[in-house]
Amino acid sequence: MPKGIPESVPDDGLTTRQRRTLPITAVHTGPGKGKSTAAFGMALRAWNQGWSIGVFQFVKSAKWKVGEENALRVLGASDQGGTVDWHKMGEGWSWLQRSTEMTMSSEEAAKEGWEQVKRDLAAERYRFYVLDEFTYPMHWGWVDVAEVLEVLGERPGSQHVVITGRYAPEELTSFADLVTEMTKVKHPMDAGRKGQRGIEW
Amino acid sequence: MPKGIPESVPDDGLTTRQRRTLPITAVHTGPGKGKSTAAFGMALRAWNQGWSIGVFQFVKSAKWKVGEENALRVLGASDQGGTVDWHKMGEGWSWLQRSTEMTMSSEEAAKEGWEQVKRDLAAERYRFYVLDEFTYPMHWGWVDVAEVLEVLGERPGSQHVVITGRYAPEELTSFADLVTEMTKVKHPMDAGRKGQRGIEW
Question: What PANTHER family does its record include (chains A, B) (predicted)?
Answer without folding.
Answer: CORRINOID ADENOSYLTRANSFERASE (PTHR46638:SF1)
